[in-house]
Amino acid sequence: MTEVHGRGNGMDSFKQQDLKAWQPVLTPVAVIAVLLSVAIVFMPIGIILRDASTNVIEYRKRYDNIDSCYVDSDMNYTVLPKNCSVTFTIEENMDAPVYFYYELENFYQNHRRYLKSKSDDQLRGEGNNKVSDCSPLKKNDGLALVACGLVSASFFEDRFNMYVNGESLCNDSCINYGINNTEAWYEHWDEWYSEPNWSMDGIAWESDEDDKFKFVALDTDKQTRIGPRQEVSGLRLPDVNNSDFIVWMRVAALPNFRKLHRIISEKDLKKGDEISVEILSWFPVDEFDGKKYVVLTTTEWCGGENFSLAWTYIIVSTIAIGLAVLFAVLLLFGSRKMGDVNLFEWSNRPKSSSLVHIS
């Protein structure tokens, strides 16, 4: 019988986890040094992020609990939209750009079935009839739905206009289309924007606008922009390259989320300004026990308010300091001492490149 032992080629070393690599010895001193390094790096980052979040100015108002804005799933276009407003006073100067968001609670956009129900081919403009991936909402009344699927068909329909000291930031499309004129809403409800201070420009990612969402004109004999929800609301789905639609299609990871609606690009809001947000409400949240908010906020270099991230850095740094102190105490006063690392033998393989035993 013959046995051959050897280091073999590189693949054998990889399979046996015997590749040559730096193998540091995790001595107590090295571990303490690493922990202190983590603390030294993380603590300033956490403090800087916390200070930046403190500088963010934000106003947040719930509106689905206002009687004149309450919408339930049984209401239809004969009584929609519901009209209300929320008001508040600016307590600190808010320099442009100022960002206006809508926020939903308890809406699970991350559900697997919901996420799968869309057609990327259709959204990219490669064919309005490509609806095979949109189950269970491919068609409506025998016509291909554009855009098909659960994500697009549940598009958030509420519209907003903001007044600063009684002056509207939006153009006439937000004011003059009669609330009770269903036909006017049907044609113009997705035009509630005005440059530069109720702007849609920049609310969606450029990569989405340039590459992922392309408008293709509908063949009205075979395709429609009216799904089951739109039959109730009396509206229609916006074009797939509409910025509000693109923002909605980038689904949220958590059930509570906010999405950018408009940007006030050039107008600074001053301390003492009276703000009134007019709301036209179509979107019901009663079936999933949801809540709806409007949010007006500034941003800092790190984005919006995010105390969670700041405190995560601070807590990790504090834990690292605590562990470093604990290990230092054990090193100084512990009874068990570590051996001389210079005497460690790393090789667990024969030193000879090959060893042959013949019997």
Summarize the structure.
This protein is an alpha+beta fold and 359 residues long. The chain is built from ten helices and 13 strands.
Provide the structure class.
Answer: alpha+beta
Q: Order of strands in the sheet with the most strands?
A: 2-12-4-10
Rounded to the nearest angstrom, the radius of gyration is 30 Å
Q: Which stretches of 5+ consecutive residues score pLDDT under 50?
A: 1-7, 353-359
Number of domains: 2
Number of helices: 10
Number of strands: 13
Task: Quote the beta fraction.
Answer: 15-25%
Task: Give the averaged pLDDT, no decimals.
Answer: 87
How much helical structure, as a percent, in the residues?
Answer: 25-40%
Name the overall outline. Answer: extended
**How far apart are the termini?**
5 Å
The succession of helices and strands, N to C, reads: EHHEEEHHEEHEEHHEHHEEEHE
| Largest sheet entry | 4 strands, antiparallel
Care to describe what's here?
The chain is of the alpha+beta class. The protein has 2 domains: 2-49 and 310-358, no CATH class; 57-298, no CATH class. Helix content is 28%, strand content 19%. The chain has 10 helices and 13 strands. The protein has helices spanning 10-15, 28-55, 112-116, 120-123, 150-153, 182-188, 206-212, 228-233, 243-249, 307-333; strands at 2-6, 58-62, 82-89, 98-105, 139-140, 143-145, 159-164, 167-168, 223-224, 257-264, 274-281, 291-297, 354-358. The protein has a 4-stranded antiparallel β-sheet. Strand 7 and strand 8 form a beta hairpin. Helix 2 runs antiparallel to helix 10 (307-333). Residues 1-7 and 353-359 have low confidence and may be disordered.
